[in-house]
Specification:
The complex is a heterodimer of chains A (295) and B (252).
Chain A lengths: L1 H4 L3 H5 L4 H36 L5 H5 L13 H32 L3 H15 L2 H16 L4 H26 L2 H9 L4 H12 L1 H16 L3 H4 L19 H9 L4 H30 L8
Helix pairs in contact in A: 3-14, 5-8, 5-11, 5-13, 6-8, 7-8, 8-11, 9-10, 11-14, 13-14
Chain B lengths: L4 E10 L2 E11 L4 E5 L6 H8 L9 E9 L2 E2 L6 H7 E4 L11 H11 L5 H14 L3 H4 L13 H14 L4 E5 L7 H14 L4 E5 L3 H7 L2 E6 L2 E7 H6 L4 H7 L5
Parallel strand pairs in B: 3-8, 3-9, 6-7, 7-8
Antiparallel strand pairs in B: 1-2, 1-4, 4-5, 9-10
Helix pairs in contact in B: 3-4, 3-6, 4-6, 6-7
Classes of the chains: A mainly alpha (295), B alpha/beta (252).
Chain lengths: 295, 252
């Protein structure tokens, strides 16, 4: 603003008062403390998991199925694979639906119907995960007649959809209208503009939303209790009960056996590491196509 | 080659507000026609009606007849077909930010299903040469994003992108308003050369610019075309009092 540039010279030359410097330092310090407070629980949880779990992680833990009670050894290999399998099913169902709904809301949903969907998505986001599990139980398990990886995947997909939908919408709305107009001006049709221009411009934000949803459901236990159900052996069939890390941790943690408690800690550590690994891997792959100066 | 533009009784609305009243005019082929007038007089709305960009705004509509060469813009033609024949350059440079320079120029063709790589290379080079950007970007065509260029370069990139689809008419909506004098000079020079191949309609706030680049100038006021004539005539002996008031700076 022009007014500030006409400040008198002695104002500009005046030393900054002790009070102002004090307030400045205090504000910086307060912000730094807030960061530490946020990171502390994360560090504490991870540190404690490493302390408790690292001792039980060995090759057998990562490659073997659970041993019967009383026998030493055994591992969670089937649960690790099961978690990955269920998450793959959940993402296959949830990501396209979530992104599709987000596209609708951002590009076509400036109306009453769009508002209804927005409200529904927000409510769905707040539904307790156990309730989502019951719904998946009702629509998949009861109709199929048995627990299955598919049922677990559906439950997790239902939880992923609202997060992905809303973040996709937000990210698409951040794309300036001028970019859409540029495409229209070239004679590009609307659907093509949405897919090849708008969505592409918003890709990194949309991926963040997808990864948030993924990381959130990856550790969910409640919706899997009576959908995927869990088991003690290898399973690659979509319509069979399937083990999951979170379920295995739950079962082992409430058991009376010390050996199982140790394995539960190790399982929890593996779960966190795998989530961090999956999220980072997607980030790296997604950023490989980025150009110099692209935003 | 460019083709002429004929507009008859064009009316345009934003919701219930009428923005253009009964515009009737002609712009001859292979010449530049400038549109001047105070802010909010409907200049931009007018050019956006010529390629049916107006209707992309919610609740906006237009009636009347627009003829671009043989093409009847509002009758029996899809908006997509119209826009493939009529290029547009916007006020603010708007390259596709996640695309390379090359992909920006090729976008119009690629997105419409044209994938002959040898031809694409040729067209990209030709379009960038035509918009006088080739020498500045030829070494980083595929490495740099369109958004990494300077403002003036971005605007020339947008012109190249519009030229790549080989339109017959080029609409420019205040193409220099966000640029420094040097970039403006380059783009004005460019407009001069482009007239050989295209018909140009340029909206501008800058009356010197209109007199430099355009053979014909139309003056808009409150949604009406007050007069359209040879540029010298508009700026020396306009026939309407309101035009004279505007160009002599008595209002607007």
């Amino acid at each position: 603003m022009p007014e500030t540039t006409t400040a008198t010279p002695d104002f500009a030359a005046a030393p900054i008062s002790l009070w102002r410097r004090g307030v400045n330092s205090f504000a910086t310090l307060a912000a730094a403390c807030a960061v530490i407070l946020v990171l502390l629980p994360l560090g504490a949880v991870f540190g404690y998991l490493v302390y408790k779990g690292i001792g039980s992680i060995n090759w057998a833990f990562l490659t073997q199925t659970p041993k019967p009670v009383g026998e030493a050894g055994g591992g969670m290999a089937n649960a690790i694979a099961g978690s990955a399998f269920i998450l793959l099913i959940a993402s296959t169902i949830g990501v396209p639906i979530g992104i599709g709904a987000g596209i609708y809301l951002a590009e076509y949903g400036r109306n009453q119907f769009g508002n209804v969907i927005r409200f529904t998505a927000d409510v769905l986001n707040g539904v307790p995960s156990i309730v989502v599990g019951i719904v998946a139980y009702a629509i998949v398990v009861l109709t199929q007649g048995h627990f299955s990886a598919l049922a677990g995947g559906v439950a997790l997909a239902i939880m992923m959809i609202p997060t992905i939908t809303r973040t996709t919408e937000e990210m698409l709305l951040l794309v300036p209208n001028a970019v859409r107009e540029a495409a229209y001006g070239l004679g590009v049709s609307r659907w093509r503009t949405t897919l090849s221009i708008t969505l592409r411009t918003a890709t990194s934000g949309v991926i963040t939303g997808v990864m948030l949803a993924f990381a959130r459901v990856a550790g969910e236990t409640a919706p899997l209790l009576f959908t995927a159900f869990g088991n003690q052996y290898w399973n690659w069939k979509i319509n069979q009960p399937t083990a999951a890390l979170s379920l295995q941790i739950f079962t082992y943690a409430i058991s009376p056996f010390d050996e199982w408690h140790r394995q539960a800690w190790a399982g929890a550590l593996i779960l966190i590491v795998l989530i961090v690994f999956a999220v980072s891997a997607v980030r790296i792959v997604a950023s490989r196509g980025m150009l110099k100066g692209a935003n | 080659m460019g083709v002429g533009i004929k507009v008859e009784r064009l009316n345009a609305w934003f919701g219930k507000t009428q923005a253009l009243y009964d515009i009737t005019m002609e712009a001859p082929a292979n010449h530049a026609t400038a549109i001047i007038g105070p802010s909010g007089c409907g200049k931009s709305t007018f050019v956006r009606c010529l390629n049916r960009m107006h209707e992309t705004v919610p609740d906006a509509r237009a009636t009347g007849k627009v003829q671009i060469g043989e093409l009847d813009v509002y009758n029996g033609t899809s908006a997509v077909q119209v826009r493939r024949r009529i290029g547009m350059v916007f006020q603010k440079p708007n390259p596709f930010p996640t695309m390379s320079i090359y992909d920006n120029v090729a976008a119009g063709l690629k997105l419409n299903g044209f994938h002959d790589h040898a031809r694409l290379n040729e067209i990209v080079e030709r379009s960038l040469k035509l918009s006088a950007l080739w020498d500045e970007v030829k070494d980083s065509l595929r490495k740099k994003s369109g958004a990494s260029l300077s403002g003036g370069q971005q605007q020339r990139l947008c012109i190249a992108r519009a030229l790549a689809v080989e339109p017959q008419v080029l609409l420019m909506d205040e193409p220099c308003s966000a640029l420094d004098p040097i970039s403006t000079g380059k783009i004005e020079e460019l407009i001069f050369q482009l007239k050989e191949k295209f018909t140009i309609v340029i909206v501008t706030h800058n009356m010197q610019q209109a007199s430099r680049v355009a053979e014909f100038t139309g003056f808009f006021l409150l949604g009406k075309l007050i007069e359209l004539d040879k540029t010298e005539k508009i700026f020396t002996t306009p026939s309407d009092k309101r035009t004279e008031d505007y160009i002599t700076g008595r209002f607007g």
